[in-house]
């Protein structure tokens, strides 16, 4: 849990007493609920790419994983996610076959080139106990979902909530460029991630049918084909080893 959460009012911050974030897992098996903050997978991947990118001096938030980071950002010269798609995912992209494979592996969470893309929705959903009760806060509807959970905990609804942002990185002008063809290529590689995103929404006890449909319509605006698919045209990655490394006793 983030220390900034203590500054938010209500019962939810006091109820979120354990953390499951990336490879940190201290949730007891007896946990009543698992709370996820989720967002549209394409938007999440774009932010994650920026977060993992080294700065002009070659510094990164994840210095200990520098060798992995440089393989995708420096060795393959993917400085924006648009470039990753145009050069690394397009059939006529100019990247080497090795870099094209790295691009696919990054987006599918197969290799730890960037923390948030590696620890993805598939990882979180497959790591928690089967039939766990899930609560969701959608980034696109944060105040609405926060208040729904607050009311469920016996608290009260509030307006004009300010949610602190930390562990983030400011986008540059170049990061807002994404061509339509490049977006289609990204959505294809994020297909499995999108299916797990939909599963999280569907299984959340605080998301009703109307709220689910709203999120699916929003998803259709970014990845229309994958929003309606039930099965992707490539295999779901086997993440058993990833889960075993992070979650004790799994």
List keywords for this structure.
two-stranded parallel ribbon; mainly alpha; 250 residues; 4 strands; disordered N terminus; two-stranded antiparallel ribbon
Oligomer: single chain
Assess the beta-strand content as a share of residues: 5-15%
Sketch the topology as an H/E string, one letter per element: HEEEHHHHHHEHHHHHH
Query: How far apart are the first and last residues' alpha carbons, in Å?
Result: 21 Å
Secondary structure tally: strands = 4
Structure, explained:
By secondary structure, this protein is mainly alpha-helical. 46% of the residues lie in helices and 6% in strands. It contains 13 helices and 4 strands. The chain has a two-stranded antiparallel ribbon. Strands 3-4 form a two-stranded parallel ribbon. It is globular and about 55 Å long. The two termini are 21 Å apart. Mean pLDDT is 90; it is low at 1-6.
Nutshell version of this structure?
The protein has 250 residues and is mainly alpha-helical. It contains 13 helices and 4 strands.
Task: Summarize the helices and strands and which ones pair or pack.
Layout: H1 12-15, E1 20-21, E2 24-25, E3 34-38, H2 41-52, H3 66-73, H4 81-88, H5 97-108, H6 115-118, H7 121-127, E4 134-138, H8 142-152, H9 180-189, H10 191-203, H11 209-222, H12 224-228, H13 240-246
Parallel strand pairs: 3-4
Antiparallel strand pairs: 1-2
């Amino acid at each position: 849990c983030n220390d900034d959460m203590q500054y938010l009012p209500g019962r939810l911050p006091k109820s979120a007493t354990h953390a499951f974030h990336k490879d940190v897992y201290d949730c007891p098996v007896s946990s009543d609920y698992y709370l996820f903050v989720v967002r549209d997978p394409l938007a999440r991947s774009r932010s994650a790419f920026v977060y993992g990118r080294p700065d002009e001096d070659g510094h990164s938030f994840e210095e200990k994983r520098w060798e992995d980071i440089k393989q995708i950002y420096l060795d393959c010269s993917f400085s924006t996610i648009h470039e990753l798609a145009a050069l690394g995912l397009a059939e006529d992209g100019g990247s080497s076959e090795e870099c094209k494979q790295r691009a696919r592996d990054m987006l599918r969470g197969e290799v730890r080139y960037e923390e948030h893309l590696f620890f993805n929705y598939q990882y979180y959903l497959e790591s928690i106990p089967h039939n766990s009760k899930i609560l969701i806060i959608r980034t696109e509807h944060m105040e609405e979902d926060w208040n729904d959970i607050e009311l469920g905990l016996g608290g009260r609804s509030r307006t004009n909530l300010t949610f602190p942002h930390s562990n983030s990185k400011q986008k540059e002008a170049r990061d807002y460029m994404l061509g339509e063809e490049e977006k289609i290529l990204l959505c294809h590689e994020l297909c499995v991630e999108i299916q797990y995103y939909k599963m999280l929404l569907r299984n959340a006890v605080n998301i009703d049918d109307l709220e689910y449909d709203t999120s699916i319509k929003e998803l259709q605006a970014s990845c229309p084909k994958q929003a309606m698919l039930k099965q992707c045209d490539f295999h779901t990655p086997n993440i058993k080893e990833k889960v075993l490394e992070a979650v004790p006793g799994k």
